[in-house]
Design a protein that fits this description.
alpha+beta; globular; Heat Shock Protein 90
Length: 64
């Protein structure tokens, strides 16, 4: 379960939650890369803990 206070940290490069996560093969770069792409396109990228676990990530582009 992702705690609300952990969400902002997940956008930092190489930041991951504990090894008990299902996908342990990653390097913790996905959200930081997504944030860079969103910024380059002037989009907003937000994330929030899912009600039943996981993370809900939303990208909103200008004018959308």
């Amino acid at each position: 379960m992702v705690e609300p206070e952990q969400v902002a940290d997940l956008f930092e490069p190489f930041r991951r939650l504990g090894q008990d996560r299902i996908g342990t093969a990653g390097h913790g770069l996905g959200l930081s890369i997504a944030q860079s792409i969103a910024t380059a396109h002037r989009a907003d990228l937000t994330a929030s803990p899912g009600r039943d676990g996981g993370l809900t990530v939303r990208v909103t582009f200008p004018g959308a």
